[in-house]
Amino acid sequence: MEFNGRILVIDDDTAILETYQDILDQDHHEDSFITGNDLFENIDPEINITVDQYDVKLFSKPDLGIREIQIAQDAHNPFAVAFIDMKMPGMDGVETAKQIWMIDPDIKIVIVTAYTEYAVNDIINMLGRQDILLLRKPFYPEEIRQLSKTLTQNWNLEQAEKQHRKRLEKAVAERTSELKKKNDRLRQLDKEKSNFIGYLSHEINTPLNWISATDIMDKEELNKNNTEMIKLIDKGVERISGLMSAMVSYFQISDPERKINFKKILLDEEIKSSIAEYENDIQRKQLKIQVEIQKGKSIHADPGLFKILASALISNAVMFSESGGTVRICASCEKGNVLFSIRDQGCGIDPDRINDIFNPFSNLEAARHGNQGFGLSLPKAKAIADLHKWDIRAWSSGAYKETGFAVLMKDKGCLLEKI
């Protein structure tokens, strides 16, 4: 940005105007005396004068100076500094400064007065702005030079900062627009993915139904090899059908635009209902289930989604607990936050993989080798927590040590309360 050294002076005394011109004139010689030197005290002719280059405009009437400010603004060539005499006929310095600032709020203004009745606070109160400078008469030429140098530099620095800020804002706006377009595209791809999963599920289920027609065959007429083959076919059909069902369910739940239907639900009853789903496995493994949730407590959540989340965590604990083990289910409340946790003493989780268990299909390799599940149960729990703006964490000390999951329900709609 080119340096702006434009200075406006308004004073009804033409001799003083010539004095300003002489002080700020770049061709001024250091040992020359200026017109109107009776205004200044203790002038030292030996003072070292360094005069910067200024473009000075002089006006003896306030209205002419105000008009010049408007012309400069319209031409995008503003003044940096204005020196305005306080006591002028018709319009005083304060009113002149007000009108100038209405046109150009960035210009630096110095009010020059020879009258002691005008205190700085009085002028500030009359102007309604703090960034006004007051210069008393009589003054030194060096005061004018230093004020001009300092204020023009400040004005240029401020304008450079504004331009830099505008460039940053423009860059941020462009980047935001670009990110929005990419985000919109990702949303579109997400919808296309969900549509594809639905389409794929339909297209796969159709031939699976044909293959499942083996159920109507008279298996007593088949030899042993054919019977084993039919069993493998049935197992494959069941596996593929289960995978497609799990995939469709996961992508439906993980849709970020899914609507949440918040309702008040009894936490203890919801957990008991989820435990009942796995009663056969609990009895078969002789597990001890400890539920530490105060009766009558409630939370605000989507009932259907919360049931899926709770069932996923309970199912995981039951599945991986050793026979005769204990599963502990707790809920506590502090400062409006609900901490829901499930702990078991089962086979544990490798601490190096603790962050992977919420990723879709993270245990698919294990599933291929006979374990149940498709690696989508815990990711569904994570997706449900995200939809509710909850935090879900897992921890494990290692193989056959305590493993736990905790859900922090901390949004303002989820308060553990007594009904």
Outline the structure in words.
With 419 residues, this protein is of the alpha/beta class. It has three domains: 6-165, Rossmann fold; 181-253; 263-418, 2-Layer Sandwich (Heat Shock Protein 90). 46% of the residues lie in helices and 17% in strands. The protein contains eleven helices and 13 strands. The strands form three sheets. A five-stranded parallel β-sheet has the order 2-1-3-4-5, sandwiched between helices. Strands 7-9-10-12-11 form a five-stranded mixed β-sheet, with helices on one face. Strand 3, helix 3 (93-103) and strand 4 (108-113) form a beta-alpha-beta unit. Helix 2 packs parallel to helix 3 (93-103) and helix 9 packs antiparallel against helix 11. Residues 28-51, 364-370 and 413-419 have low confidence and may be disordered.
Main attributes?
alpha/beta, Rossmann fold, Heat Shock Protein 90, 3 domains, 5-stranded mixed sheet, 11 helices
What's a quick, concise take on this entry?
With 419 residues, the chain is α/β, with parallel strands linked by helices. It is 46% helix and 17% strand.
